[in-house]
């Protein structure tokens, strides 16, 4: 459930048993880091952006950038950006489907991008404009949020913070392709919410970079 427009986010957080582990100063430092690092990333990775763009254009079967509505800070929707990895009309019946590790909807180029996490690069823009942070919880579609909240309504407590490009659950829970894994991920995200700090964020970023560097599929 998305918080009512008549109830402020601060009021919602005060009623929550899950309290943000960061204070105001830490949140400001975190946001400043997100802005600086995402801007630098967009500039430094521009050759990689061009490489992926031309690979997808040569594939010639649809737009390069894929937009999908997710729910983020304050329960507000935003469009998450990715390089498109799946075939067009990958959900022909209109019912959202969870992506799988070896998804037969992946294009040849898309499979390469997914395996090397290059499809996530456009999310640097989401971080820069404030839709996301480098570290948080992975944002989900409302369709799946509704299903999760039927099992555990605490999901809405995550709306206190920005979703992230990476997370504790991304590292330790692996690919989330079942409801059981979604509920485990939720518990890990709620734990992160309560314990998060600048030091924990740094550890998550470094661990994510190390795993990707070693070729681990997370």
Provide an overview of this structure:
The protein has one domain. Helix content is 48%, strand content 9%. The protein has helices at 9-14, 24-44, 46-59, 108-115, 123-129, 142-151, 168-172, 179-195, 198-213; strands at residues 65-71, 77-83, 133-135, 164-166. Strands 1-2 form a two-stranded antiparallel ribbon. A two-stranded parallel ribbon has the order 3-4. Helix 2 packs across helix 5 (123-129).
| Major β-sheet profile | 2 strands, antiparallel
Low-confidence stretches: 1-14
Query: Overall mean pLDDT score?
Result: 85
Strand content: 5-15%
Main sheet: strand order = 1-2
Shape: globular
* Radius of gyration over all CA atoms, rounded: 17 Å
- Class computed from helices, strands and strand pairing: mainly alpha
Order of helices and strands: HHHEEHHEHEHHH
Helix content: 40-55%
Indicate how many domains the architecture comprises. 1
Number of strands: 4
**CA-CA gap between termini:** 28 Å
Helices, by number, come to: 9
Give a summary of the structure in a few sentences.
By secondary structure, the chain is mainly alpha-helical.
């Amino acid at each position: 459930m998305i918080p009512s427009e008549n109830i402020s986010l601060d009021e919602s957080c005060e009623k929550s048993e899950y309290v943000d582990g960061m204070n105001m100063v830490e949140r400001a430092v975190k946001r400043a880091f997100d802005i600086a690092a995402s801007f630098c990333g967009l500039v430094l990775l521009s050759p990689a952006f061009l490489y992926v763009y031309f690979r997808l254009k040569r594939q010639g079967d649809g737009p390069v950038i894929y937009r999908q509505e997710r729910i983020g800070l304050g329960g507000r929707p935003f469009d998450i950006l990715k390089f498109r990895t799946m075939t067009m009309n990958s959900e022909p019946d209109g019912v959202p489907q969870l992506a799988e590790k070896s998804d037969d909807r992946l294009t040849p180029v898309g499979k390469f991008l997914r395996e090397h996490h290059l499809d996530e690069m456009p999310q640097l823009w989401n971080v820069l404009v404030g839709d996301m942070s480098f570290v948080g919880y992975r944002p989900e579609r409302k369709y799946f949020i509704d299903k999760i909240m039927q099992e555990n309504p605490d999901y809405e407590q995550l709306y206190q913070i920005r979703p992230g490009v990476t997370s504790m659950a991304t590292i330790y829970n692996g690919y989330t392709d079942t409801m059981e894994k979604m509920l485990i991920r939720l518990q890990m995200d709620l734990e992160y919410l309560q314990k998060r700090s600048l030091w924990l964020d740094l550890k998550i970023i470094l661990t994510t970079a190390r795993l990707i560097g070693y070729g681990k599929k997370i």
